[in-house]
Amino acid sequence: MSGSTRRHFLQNVGSGMLIAGLGSQLAMELGVASESDLLLPVAGDYGRLGPWVALMQELDPDKLQVKIVEELNKGTVGLPDLVAAAALANAETFGGQDYVGYHAEMALLPALQISAELPKPLQPLPVLKVLYRNSSRIQKFGPTRKTLQPMGAQEKATVTVDRFGPELRQLVRQADMDKAEQLFAKVHQNDPSQAFDTLLYTIADEVDVHRFVLAYRGMGLVNVAGPDHSYTLLRQCVRHCVDFEQRRKATGREASPVRTEIPKLLDEYKLVGKSLGNREPDDEWLLAFSNTIYAATKVDASRAVAEALSEGISPKSVCEAISLACNQLTLRQSGNPLRTHGASAGVHSSDAANAWRHMASEANPLNQKVGLLVSAWHTGQYDQWSTEPYPLESHFDQIKTDKADELLGVCEESIRGNDQGTTTAAVHRYLERGFESEPVFALLRKYAISEDGRLHSEKFFRTVREEFEFSRPAFRSRHLLALARVTASAYAYDVEDNHGHRAPGYEDACRLLKIDV
Fold it and tell me: Each residue of 202-255: pLDDT tens digit?
């Protein structure tokens, strides 16, 4: 069977279904699938996840919740498969080009991770909530919308990241969607292991939290959905970046100076080709360096990181300092209205730093260095607050107890009153008295599940959890204080900042799971 005839045959019968039925090895032996066909599945080829992908796209969200709970009770589906199917349905529908759509995509993995922290009867709740958001957005655009279209087999090539990374970046800068997609398809088809490093050249080419987090969470979703679906989940990142460039050009905005300044810093500090160090400075240095980044302009923040790396400071210490600087953007925020949740400086910068810390740890040395410089730049782009960090002295006026359970009660009451100051004061006093942090996480997690957080609640909860566990003991409490403040800010507000609402789908999910709302 010739190559062209084979491709025509596969397109007509559905290659995914055929290969899934035969098994990949037998399919190749019979000549109905080449190695490249297996490496690069066409859009819509989702194997055993296919029926669930279709349901996510086509079934009314309320009916979908009922269906999911029925199948969970029967044991015919698990939460990871539901999250994987939702991610693929989202990617195919939006291709990373819809604001609410890609925020739903970025919340899927955090929701699954949150579910793993819960008792078994409660585990479906955070996932159901995000699946409802995901399918509601898909339904709004129509179940027949398919942004991702099939990509044909690409020419054989030896993939080298230092060639294809800059080439992909240049095509994205030219806002050429078709050629950028074709190049990424070629890279992924010929060497999937090099696809993420190739993509990072483009991810680091603008200072945009959404491209950072979409790439980080997208790579995490590959671990849930499986490597067969990595092309679909990473391909949307390419389209997201091209779409960003198209909109930038259409509105006449200048490209970020990060494109010219980061290469200058790499040259000035001779970082290209330089081995990364492993010096772990003490807590005093770390605190001072985080304050330097917090107070610096975006260029100077990146410069400080470049200098630290050139002096052999470990990437781990640099990442922790950037994370602490982001934390200050949350704890020091002032102004009116005092909304610290959603797309705030603290939440966005913390999510961005968290994403780069993880991506850099998996990247090649050049991408690791560039990623840390861009992460610092992102932090430095925000105006610094000159106010003292929460909680202020006055916030302790309502704290009349030193008992653990009573302090948690004050914290919860303050959250429900949107009292950010007293909430942080209660958590501060609780931790100051040496009580375990896990009950605080459990309390705040409850509201990460029930509230919308202007599309950010799940992501930020996981960001704080991850940074808390990554940080040195001396600084961990700061992350929990930030989460407490953001939780109090978010309670009962919907995405339009109207008060008196829980997250859409949450209460219905509680009823289906027989959980007391």
Answer: 999 999 999 999 999 999 999 999 999 999 999 999 999 999 999 999 999 999
Task: Please give the C-alpha separations between residue 69 and each of 57, 73, 127, 130, 489, in angstroms, as whole numbers.
Answer: 17, 6, 11, 14, 31
Work out the percent of the chain whose per-residue pLDDT is above 90.
86
- pTM of the predicted structure, to 2 decimals: 0.91
* Spatial CB neighbours of 19, under 8 Å, sequence gap ≥ 6: 27, 32, 33, 37, 38
The per-residue DSSP string of 278-302 comes to -B---HHHHHHHHHHHHHS-HHHHH
Tokens 């596969």, residue located: 10
Reply yes or no: is the peptide bond before residue 150 cis, omega within 30 of 0. no
Closest to 457 measured CA to CA, from 471, 440, 445: 445
- Backbone φ and ψ of 378, nearest 5°: -60, -40
Note whether 219 and 74 are within 8 A (CB): no
Residue 91, both tokens: 């990617």
Q: Which residue has the higher pLDDT, 26 or 247?
A: 247
Would you list the domain boundaries of the chain? 3-39, 161-250, 258-380, 393-490
Q: Which amino acid is at 77?
A: V
Instruction: Say how far apart CA 179 and CA 360 lie, in whole Å.
Output: 27
For 497, the 3-state DSSP assignment is coil
Say if residue 264 is exposed, middle or buried (CB neighbours under 10 Å; 0-12, 13-18, 19+): middle
Query: Cα separations (Å) of 51 from 19, 135, 376?
Result: 16, 14, 43
pLDDT in tens, 342-370: 999 999 999 999 999 999 999 999 999 99
Q: What is the mean pLDDT of residues 121-128?
A: 98
Category of 158 on φ-ψ map: left (φ > 0), alpha (ψ -120 to 50) or beta: beta
Residue 33 predicted with pLDDT over 60? no
pLDDT at 277: 97
Query: How many Å from the N-terminal Cα to the C-terminal Cα in the chain?
Result: 60
Q: What is the mean pLDDT of residues 91-102?
A: 96
Q: What is the pLDDT of residue 42?
A: 52
Q: How far is CA 150 from CA 37, 195, 430, in A?
A: 12, 18, 55
Q: What is the pLDDT of residue 21?
A: 32
Nearest partner of 489 among 341, 330, 334, judged by Cα: 341
Number of alpha carbons in the 13 Å side-chain half-sphere of residue 37 = 23
| Amino acid at site 418 | N
Prior bond to 391 cis, omega within 30?
yes
Cα distance between residue 414 and residue 406, in whole Å: 12
* Residue tagged 């292991």 (tokens): 193
Which residue reads 């202020």 in tokens?
Answer: 392
Q: Take residue 48 and report the two structure tokens written for it.
A: 């055993």
Residue 382 DSSP one-character state: S
